[in-house]
């Protein structure tokens, strides 16, 4: 079974000097001697490793994207809250303005009462002048 | 004309009174009109602000949709990459990248 397998060789390197000691992975044909010490792993395992790595990158991307979406949703909620507050304030203001438009304040009442008294007085005086 | 003015002179007080009452009425009406005009302007400002917020919300909603689409694309492309036949060189390159990746 192992004869049918194609192997990849790669060297695990000292973690403390990862970059300086890094050696390239090489293709090793069957029955050939290895140029350096290291681990030999089957091709299928490398493919699985690659797929795992792709999935890891995908999950990282999904995490980042979801975090961004959450922030956007929060931004949307804040905007909607501001809009709601603005509309409620405006509604209150308009209600107050309608209320004041349909009624008179104290000075307006005094003005209208004064004008009424004046007109009534003048009407009485005019009537008095006409009949006398 | 002179006769009319002489007669009108006898009613000066009455005429002034009526004019004063009219003035008060007109003043109050003008005041109400100004208040209504201010309210309309203010309402227009609020309407513009609401529209501006709506535009911002639309922009944010678009961004959210884009993010959802990008997630969907990412999953799809990863699945396709996993299924595709990988060449020997690609696998070697993958191993090299991984071994040279900073910790």
Précis, in short:
Chain A has two helices and three strands, in the order E-E-E-H-H. With 132 residues, chain A is mainly alpha-helical.
Describe the fold and architecture.
The complex is a heterodimer of chains A (132) and B (103). Chain A has two helices and three strands. By secondary structure, chain A is mainly alpha-helical. In chain A, strands 2-1-3 form a three-stranded antiparallel beta sheet. Chain B is mostly helical and 103 residues long. The radius of gyration of chain B is 41 Å and the shape is rod-shaped. The termini of chain B are far apart. Chains A and B meet through strand 2, helix 1 and helix 2 of A and helix 2 and helix 3 of B.
Which terms would index this structure?
heterodimer, A: 132 residues, mainly alpha, disordered N terminus, B: mainly alpha, 3 helices, 90% helix, rod-shaped
**What are the secondary-structure elements of chain A, in order, as H or E?**
EEEHH
The largest chain-to-chain contact, stated as pair and per-chain residue counts, equals: A-B, 61 and 51 residues
Largest sheet of chain A: 3 strands, antiparallel
Large-scale geometry of chain B? rod-shaped
Number of continuous helical runs of chain A: 2
Question: Which secondary-structure class do the elements of chain B indicate?
Answer: mainly alpha
Uncertain residue segments of chain A: 1-22
Strands in their spatial order, largest beta sheet of chain A: 2-1-3
Number of E strands of chain B: 0
Fraction in beta strands of chain B: under 5%
Largest sheet of chain B: none
Write the layout of secondary structure elements.
The complex is a heterodimer of chains A (132) and B (103).
Chain A: E1 7-10, E2 26-27, E3 39-42, H1 43-101, H2 106-131
Antiparallel strand pairs in A: 1-2, 1-3
Chain B: H1 2-9, H2 12-83, H3 88-100
């Amino acid at each position: 079974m192992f004869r049918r397998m194609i192997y990849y060789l790669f060297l695990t390197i000292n973690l403390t000097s990862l970059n300086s000691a890094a050696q390239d992975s090489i293709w090793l044909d069957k029955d050939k001697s290895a140029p350096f010490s290291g681990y030999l792993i089957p091709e299928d395992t490398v493919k699985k490793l690659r797929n795992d790595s792709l999935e890891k990158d995908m999950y990282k991307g999904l995490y980042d994207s979801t975090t961004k979406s959450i922030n956007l949703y929060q931004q949307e909620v804040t905007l909607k809250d501001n809009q709601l507050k603005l509309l409620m304030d405006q509604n209150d203001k308009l209600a107050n303005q309608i209320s004041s438009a349909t009624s008179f304040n104290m000075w307006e009442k005094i003005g209208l009462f004064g004008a009424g008294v004046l007109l009534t007085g003048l009407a009485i005086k005019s009537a008095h002048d006409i009949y006398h | 004309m002179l006769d009319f003015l002489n007669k009108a002179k006898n009613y000066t007080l009455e005429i002034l009174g009526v004019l004063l009452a009219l003035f008060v009425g007109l003043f109050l009406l003008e005041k109400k009109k100004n208040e209504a005009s201010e309210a309309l302007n203010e309402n227009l400002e609020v309407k513009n602000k609401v529209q501006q917020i709506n535009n911002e919300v639309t922009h944010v909603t678009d961004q959210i949709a884009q993010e959802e689409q990008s997630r969907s694309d990412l999953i799809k492309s990863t699945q396709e990459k996993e299924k595709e036949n990988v060449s020997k060189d690609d696998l070697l390159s993958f191993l090299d990248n991984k071994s040279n990746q900073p910790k």
